[in-house]
Write a structure and sequence with these properties.
Order of helices and strands: EEHHEH
CATH class: Alpha Beta
CATH topology: GIY-YIG endonuclease
Shape: globular
Number of helices: 3
Number of domains: 1
Strand order of the largest sheet: 2-1-3
CATH architecture: 3-Layer(aba) Sandwich
CATH superfamily: GIY-YIG endonuclease
């Protein structure tokens, strides 16, 4: 049985140092599987995350928020919200390369 594509926001969490990567997708499961494959094959786009994985750090994939029917813009807004809340734009806390979001003023 195939799982239904569920859009939303997800996190990749390094259990050893607690750093996180926040992302969004129209299909959370497929996107997390793609991240896992890239890490296993040494081809992930985030060099720091790849290095931590290669070093033996345990990496978990978590759906933070499922958003059925969400538009790309809504997904992006919520992704930015979580990046702001968890401060994953800061190398001390995360792996996100994009700039710091300006606010977390999103009504949930």
């Amino acid at each position: 049985m195939m799982l239904k594509a569920v859009p939303g926001v997800y996190a990749i969490i390094n259990r050893n140092n607690r750093k996180m990567y926040i992302g969004r997708s129209k299909n959370i499961l497929a996107r997390c599987e793609a991240h896992a494959w890239k890490l296993k094959t040494g081809n992930h786009g985030c060099d720091e995350l790849q290095e931590d994985f290669d070093f033996g750090n345990q990496i978990d994939f978590v759906a933070l928020l499922e958003m059925p029917g969400a538009s790309n813009e809504e997904l992006k807004e919520m992704e930015q919200h979580f990046i702001y809340i968890f401060q994953t734009y800061d190398r001390e806390h995360g792996y996100n390369k994009n700039k710091r979001p300006t606010s977390a003023s999103i009504a949930i």
